[in-house]
């Protein structure tokens, strides 16, 4: 597309640095370009913002229609939400959070649940990384002559794993694994395995092919080629993807308990259901603290990895 | 050929990985570190294989096929799927409305005082405050926001939309800021130095440079919002999640299967849109 833009020549004003994302510069998206080679190029006006022939305009219109239809069809109760009454009940509700419960034996239970949540997220992410790596190999084309017959079916499998949310996985896993953190761990591993598998496959396919080709021409088998040439090149990226998913999973693990899969969520659902607002506040505090802690840890680790 | 420099190449590669001891040691250390995690999560894969659990699982899985496909049920699923998408879209719209101004406030590249050395104290603390607000917004999972709002506005989509809006405003604000600050700042700084306003510098410098990345992240988040709105259905915000919760409690595998297929279709659709947009914005 940049060729077409440049063909209008320097006299047509500065070349567009890029498309205008909100106005959806129609000229760029539709790719219209006048190819004139006269001595003095005519000064072209910028493409109009709205143009029936441009895909960009139609796309923006579709997005607007989707947004309007969403708000229109949902019968949202803003009036009730913004009313004085709701404000009062919200204020009362938040007021009940204070003071948070700080009895030692309750704090100990919260600490145990926090550790359980942390363990669920860490172990779930680790298993997911293993699943992801195992599935990423058949899901990627390692060299141009590779027939990669398993690429499409594996990608479908990864998409299927990925498109079901963790909480739904958890409620499915509960049936065979029973209540408790084990079901939650499996659920996190299933969803994250799909996400990581896809990211890993893309990273592996985008790795520079030189070292692998050098080994392959020496007659090395394909597994050692992957282990000694491709994997070392992409490992930092794979680790950073895994850490990033860990950040996401700590949030997911915190709420999985709501369907009975252990951790802080179970405590939260229990005490919120019984209107123990002080205890709920403590659990919420632990949740926020855990999320902030893991975010900071993972940020530091990723900085260190991509130094 | 210089004979003194010629190194005799080994006839064949060594059979054994030369670094195997180190690798084995590393695996052992990781295993020991993981052990407490296995204990804490009650990781017992064999419970999946015991007789009773196997029977229940097999029965449930067998009921998955064929997926439920009576016209009444399909119509219900279509309605609830639209509710799910609408909740995600409305939540994302509100999140964007909140995230864009917060991003503009917190972006360091748009600081005029930072052009000449250090940023002034006032703007610096304003940016830090906005960042802290974003951290708080996204640290509370959307399900918890929803549980709180359900108490105030009652069951229904309003709680779900608000929950998605708050959490996603925090996430979008953070990542938009990171994207804007990771690129080249020359064009923007040149505009600012030559007297353009911050908004002009953003619209003509930063935004065109990062449009593709910002758009594809937004579409990715929309896909995540669809998943979130399914999850929020489990606490009573309506949509596919609520329907699924009901079917799951009745052990109706066929209905669950139909809904799982609908999720997959929705996510595949979001994927297509994202890929197409990324190609167009290049």
Number of domains of chain A: 2
What is the correct CATH architecture of the largest domain in chain A?
Orthogonal Bundle
What is the level 1 CATH name of the largest domain in chain A? Mainly Alpha
Helix content of chain A: 55-70%
Q: In percent, how much strand structure appears in the residues of chain A?
A: under 5%
Q: Separation of termini of chain A?
A: 34 Å
The largest pleated sheet of chain B is described as: none
Radius of gyration of chain B: 27 Å
Q: Class of chain B, according to the CATH hierarchy?
A: Mainly Alpha
* Structural class by secondary-structure content of chain B: mainly alpha
CATH superfamily of the largest domain in chain A: MetI-like
Strand share of the residues of chain B? under 5%
**Major sheet of chain A: size, sense and barrel closure?**
none
Which chains have the largest interface? A-B, 76 and 75 residues
Mean pLDDT of chain B: 84
What form of chain A results from the Cα inertia axes?
A: extended
- List unreliable stretches of 5+ residues of chain A: 1-34
Tell me the CATH architecture of chain B.
Answer: Orthogonal Bundle
Number of helical runs of chain A? Answer: 13
Main attributes of the structure:
heterodimer; A: 307 residues; mainly alpha; MetI-like fold; 2 domains; extended; B: 282 residues
Structural commentary:
The complex is a heterodimer of chains A (307) and B (282). Chain A has 307 residues and is mainly alpha-helical. Chain A has 2 domains: 2-73, no CATH class; 104-305, MetI-like fold. Chain A has 13 helices and no strands. Chain A is extended, with a radius of gyration of 27 Å. Mean pLDDT of chain A is 80; it is low at 1-34. By secondary structure, chain B is an all-alpha fold. Chain B has a single domain, classed as MetI-like fold (Orthogonal Bundle). Chain B contains 10 helices and no strands. In chain B, helix 3 (71-106) packs antiparallel against helix 8. The model of chain B has no long low-confidence stretch (mean pLDDT 84). At the A-B interface, helix 3, helix 4, helix 5, helix 6 and helix 7 of A face helix 1, helix 2, helix 3, helix 4 and helix 5 of B.
């Amino acid at each position: 597309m940049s060729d077409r833009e440049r063909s209008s020549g320097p006299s047509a004003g500065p070349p567009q640095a890029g498309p205008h994302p909100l106005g959806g510069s129609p000229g760029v998206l539709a790719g219209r370009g006048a190819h004139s080679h006269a001595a003095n190029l005519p000064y072209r006006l910028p493409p109009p913002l709205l143009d029936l022939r441009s895909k960009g305009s139609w796309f923006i219109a579709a997005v607007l229609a989707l947004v309007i239809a969403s708000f229109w069809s949902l019968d949202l109760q803003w009036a009730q939400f913004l009313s004085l009454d709701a404000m009062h009940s919200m204020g009362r509700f938040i007021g009940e959070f204070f003071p948070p419960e700080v009895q030692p034996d309750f704090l100990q239970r919260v600490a145990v649940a926090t550790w359980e949540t942390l363990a669920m997220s860490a172990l779930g992410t680790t298993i997911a990384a293993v699943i992801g790596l195992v599935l990423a190999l058949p899901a990627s084309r390692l060299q141009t002559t590779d027939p990669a017959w398993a690429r499409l079916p594996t990608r479908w499998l990864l998409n299927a794993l990925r498109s079901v949310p963790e909480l739904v996985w958890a409620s499915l896993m509960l049936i065979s694994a029973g209540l408790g953190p084990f079901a939650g761990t499996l659920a996190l591993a299933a969803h994250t395995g799909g996400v990581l598998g896809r990211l890993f496959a893309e990273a592996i396919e985008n790795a520079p092919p030189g070292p692998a080709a050098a080994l392959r021409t020496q007659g090395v088998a394909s597994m050692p080629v992957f282990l000694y040439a491709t994997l070392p090149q992409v490992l930092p990226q794979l680790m950073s993807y895994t850490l990033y998913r860990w950040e996401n999973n700590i949030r997911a693990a915190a709420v999985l308990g709501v369907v009975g899969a252990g951790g802080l969520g179970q405590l939260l659902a229990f005490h919120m259901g019984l209107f123990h607002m002080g205890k709920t506040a403590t659990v919420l505090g632990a949740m926020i603290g855990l999320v902030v802690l893991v975010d900071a840890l993972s940020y530091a680790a990723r900085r260190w990895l991509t130094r | 050929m210089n004979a003194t420099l010629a190194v005799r190449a080994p006839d064949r590669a060594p059979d054994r990985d030369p670094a195997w001891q180190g690798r084995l040691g590393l695996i052992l250390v990781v295993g020991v570190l993981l052990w407490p995690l296995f204990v804490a999560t009650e990781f017992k894969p064999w419970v999946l294989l015991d007789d009773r659990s196997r029977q229940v699982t097999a029965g449930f899985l067998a009921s998955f096929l064929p997926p439920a496909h009576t016209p009444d049920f399909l119509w219900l699923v279509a309605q609830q799927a639209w509710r799910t998408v609408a909740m995600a879209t409305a939540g994302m719209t509100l999140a964007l409305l909140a995230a864009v101004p917060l991003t503009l406030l917190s972006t360091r590249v748009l600081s005029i005082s930072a052009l000449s050395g250090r940023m002034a104290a006032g703007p610096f603390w304003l940016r830090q405050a906005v960042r802290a607000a974003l951290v708080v917004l996204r640290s509370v999972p959307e399900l918890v926001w929803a549980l709180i709002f359900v108490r105030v506005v009652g069951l229904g989509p309003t709680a779900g939309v608000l929950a998605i809006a708050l959490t996603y405003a925090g996430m979008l604000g953070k990542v938009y800021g990171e994207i804007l600050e990771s690129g080249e700042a020359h064009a923007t700084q040149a505009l600012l130095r030559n007297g353009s306003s911050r908004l002009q510098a953003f619209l003509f410098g930063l935004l065109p440079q990062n449009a593709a990345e910002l758009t594809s992240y937004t579409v990715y988040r929309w896909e995540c919002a669809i998943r979130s709105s399914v999850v929020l259905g489990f606490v009573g915000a309506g949509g596919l999640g609520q329907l699924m919760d009901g079917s799951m409690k009745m052990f109706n595998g066929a209905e669950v299967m139909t809904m799982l297929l609908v999720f997959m279709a929705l996510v595949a659709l979001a994927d297509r849109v994202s890929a197409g947009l990324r190609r167009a914005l290049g």
